[in-house]
């Protein structure tokens, strides 16, 4: 996608270095960071310089590649995979990418490992872009069907939670890819963007949509149910950080409540994901998916632009107030209308997923 008219991916390599869009400063300041060492990559993932399951996986792959350029030994490969895998527990793309790196690199002679690891990292990034483009193609068909039922010129009203946009992937995004493609096809849209506390990731979605010229409104996290009750939402679409083989989805905290409200108001609730986000080893999301607990200061403090334009952080709670910060929740498959993948649409069920990915079989 473009920033000020210039195309960007969220991660890329050039001149022997890996660069990322440093998301700590968005939407107020667009900064590019160069990451080099294994510690750089681990910090970038853990501290959310990069975030979003697909981008985390691509970043980890580049981290292994840089480590192999520095030290192609078995010990260095094992260290890289262990250090990166420990950064964040919920997004399955992290382990998926590291498993691919280990399987591709470990059998090779030391002298071949750096080039092979870099080639694989680039392929993972390129594949993510294409997967997300295809998610948009399939999601566009859903939006077209809704648009066809509406009076001419009336927008299709979507609601999304968190940021499943292009900066949470390598490009296009998951939940946003159908939005971009619908807008490019001339379909009128209006997107309700949840603020997504505590890190206000909805502000990143608003930044993206604004740059693409898509009408949107930034709303509080608890406004979604009210909007659905008033008939102001035609479809909910979110991303996911891990999807079980039976269709449970794990996404940013608050997603479950949106699914409950959607079900109560007969609003379709779709989840967009590349197949790399499916954990085929898990069947019960509530029981098995690890939920990341993050720093309570993300809840007790907020960052934003001050009146003079500088970025600042302020405390919003009484001093000493304890806070909890579970980063994700699980939406059971029964609340999900359907899954949008690079291979098409399916029911959120073992049978639905097996229909698109028969090599995996029904769980």
From TrEMBL:
It is an enzyme of class 5 (isomerase). GO terms for molecular function: S-methyl-5-thioribose-1-phosphate isomerase activity; translation initiation factor activity. Substrate binds at residues 51-53, 88, 201, 251-252. Pathway: Amino-acid biosynthesis; L-methionine biosynthesis via salvage pathway; L-methionine from S-methyl-5-thio-alpha-D-ribose 1-phosphate: step 1/6. The keyword Thylakoid does not apply. Keywords: Amino-acid biosynthesis, Initiation factor, Isomerase, Methionine biosynthesis, Protein biosynthesis. Pfam families: IF-2B. The gene is mtnA. SUPFAM superfamilies: NagB/RpiA/CoA transferase-like. It catalyses: 5-(methylsulfanyl)-alpha-D-ribose 1-phosphate = 5-(methylsulfanyl)-D-ribulose 1-phosphate. NCBIfam families: eIF-2B_rel, PRK05720.1, salvage_mtnA. HAMAP family: Salvage_MtnA. Signal peptide: none annotated. Gene3D superfamilies: translation initiation factor eif-2b, domain 1, Translation initiation factor eif-2b, domain 2. One of its GO terms (biological process) is L-methionine salvage from methylthioadenosine. This is Methylthioribose-1-phosphate isomerase. It comes from Oceaniovalibus guishaninsula JLT2003. Catalyzes the interconversion of methylthioribose-1-phosphate (MTR-1-P) into methylthioribulose-1-phosphate (MTRu-1-P). Belongs to the EIF-2B alpha/beta/delta subunits family. MtnA subfamily. The record marks 162 as: Transition state stabilizer. The active site is at 241 (proton donor). Its EC number is 5.3.1.23.
């Amino acid at each position: 996608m473009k920033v000020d008219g210039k195309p960007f991916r969220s991660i890329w390599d050039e001149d022997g270095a890996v660069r990322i869009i440093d998301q700590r400063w968005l939407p107020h300041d667009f900064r590019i960071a160069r990451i080099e060492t294994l510690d750089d990559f681990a910090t970038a993932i853990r501290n959310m310089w990069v975030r979003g399951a697909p981008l985390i996986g691509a970043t980890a792959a580049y981290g292994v590649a840089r480590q192999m350029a520095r030290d192609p030994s078995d010990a260095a490969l094992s260290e890289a995979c262990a250090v990166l895998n420990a950064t964040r527990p919920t997004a399955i793309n992290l382990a998926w990418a590291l498993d691919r790196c280990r399987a591709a690199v470990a059998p090779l002679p030391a002298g071949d490992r750096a080039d092979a690891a870099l080639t694989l990292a680039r392929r993972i990034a390129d594949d993510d872009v294409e997967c997300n483009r295809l998610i948009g193609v399939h999601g566009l068909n859903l939006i077209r069907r809704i648009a066809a039922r509406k009076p001419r010129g009336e927008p299709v009203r979507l609601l999304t939670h968190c940021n499943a946009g292009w900066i949470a992937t390598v490009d296009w995004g998951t939940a946003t890819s159908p939005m971009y493609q619908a807008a490019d096809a001339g379909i009128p849209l209006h997107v309700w963007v949840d603020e997504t506390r505590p890190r206000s990731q909805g502000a990143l979605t608003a930044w993206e949509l604004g740059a693409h010229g898509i009408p949107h409104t930034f709303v509080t996290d608890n406004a979604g149910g009210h909007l659905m009750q008033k008939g102001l939402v035609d479809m909910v679409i979110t991303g996911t950080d891990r999807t079980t083989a039976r269709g449970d989805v794990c996404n940013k905290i608050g997603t479950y409540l949106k699914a409950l409200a959607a079900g109560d108001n007969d609003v379709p609730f779709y989840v967009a994901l590349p197949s790399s986000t499916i954990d085929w080893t898990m069947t019960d999301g509530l029981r098995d998916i690890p939920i990341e607990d993050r720093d309570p200061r993300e809840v007790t403090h907020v960052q934003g632009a001050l009146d003079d334009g500088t970025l600042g952080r302020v405390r919003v709670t009484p001093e000493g107030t304890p806070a909890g910060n579970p980063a994700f929740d699980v939406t059971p498959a029964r609340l999900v209308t359907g899954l949008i993948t690079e291979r098409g649409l399916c029911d959120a069920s073992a049978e639905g997923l097996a229909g698109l990915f028969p090599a995996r079989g029904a769980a």
